[in-house]
Amino acid sequence: MVSTNPPGTQYSGTKYLPASNDPQISPNQQLLPLTAKVNSQDCLEIGGCDVTTLIKQFGSPLYILDETTLRTACRQYRDTFQRYYEGESQVLYASKAWSCLTVCAIAASEGLGIDVVSAGELYTALTAGVKPDLIYFHGNNKSLAELVFALEASCNIVVDNWHELKTLVALATEKSLSSVPVMLRLTPGIECHTHEYIRTGHLDSKFGFDPNDLDELFAFVTKQTVLNCIGVHAHIGSQIFERQPHRDLAGVMVQWLNKAKEYDLSINQLNVGGGLGIKYTESDDPPSIEEWGQPICEVVQEACKAANLPLPKLLCEPGRSLIATACVTAYTIGSSKVVPDIRTYVAVDGGMSDNPRPITYQSLYVSVVANRMSATATETVAIAGKHCESGDILIKHAHLPQTEPGHILVVMGTGAYNYSMASNYNRVPRPAAVIVANGEANLILQRETLQDLIEKDCLPERLKS
Ligand SMILES: Cc1ncc(COP(=O)(O)O)c(C=O)c1O
User: Fold this and answer.
1) What is the pLDDT of residues 263-274, one digit of tens each?
2) I want to staple 368 with a disulfide (CB 3.0 to 4.6 A). Which of 4, 13, 258, 391 is the partner?
3) Catalytic residue list
4) Which superfamily, per CATH, for 68-323?
């Protein structure tokens, strides 16, 4: 039975449901996935699947990815750039947010390309069937083996520094290649830390070329027939709520294109990176995907017109805002500890190994009890992970109804930088992940087993008993 609460009572779960099922709703502005509902058992349903049933079927903890939310975000990005940009555009999924075969395949099926930053991410994207010309390989210290792999795969390479540029020229020459497609990553002097940004002459960043090297860089690149410099790239930060930084960025990048003209370089791609923020907590208020993309398109168009430049192909590469809201992590509640007059700890069967963001960045999350969605929140507790680390607290102040061991706690917005940053700390196996749609759940990542954990261990002969 769904409990009926008197008006004005604080609900623990139902208030986080999407406000409407309007397809225009921007996923990054929601806390729960777009298909979230409460069923007649007062349990949370995602993609038509009861979360408590999923836990019985697939075990706990469990990442639950909602296909509708992910596809909606992909389409909104694609449609925004098609609607507001008169030239060609291409959205890339920054797969560092969550790289696995299913996510790459879905992004590709929605017409997105993929940004990768390692041989592992490149291999995943290729295996998922992503076309090499839609793959862009980033990274500030790609190994020789990674560069060779990228050349053999014929993907685009986003060159980060002089060492890489010269290594690439040597490798391409050695392999008698020509016109290897490269982009140049520059640090534009725009720095963003979530809600604030600054313009500086020099950025303290390990990524990208110094824009003061632009003349030298273009002069060098134009002479390298083994390379085809197709574009420029910049990424100014993550979880950004302001729109001005990307407007400024777009303007600066068009100036770079203008300079390229002086060197006879027909650069025709401009990639503004990712960075749009998402709603992790009730007070977060990011712009929608459309509100973020529209001004970027407008600035590039206006600036190109003013400089009499042809419109470049416009690229962006969001990660978090494409996938974070699409996924929740469901845990099983176990022990609890009351520290009188201080706080109550409620422990779950995962923690910093499946979501390192709270301990690493003090990131905030919101949770609900999946089997008590309409119950009134009666207490504020700290959600503790199971790891041997006092700082392993997933949520410091969770407002929840009374919970008991065995209840299912769902943490929202865990699609980005959770699985991809997960570890085996304390030799805890990584959870499974399922994708849900239309009442069906499919495994997309198997739960690691204890055997998996020792698979790569080697015991020297002399130590064997
Ligand atoms: C080069 C680059 N592109 C794209 C992204 C994706 O950013 P976000 O997940 O904030 O959209 C990142 C994130 O660090 C990045 O470094």
Assistant:
1) 989 899 999 999
2) 13
3) 388
4) Alanine racemase (3.20.20.10)
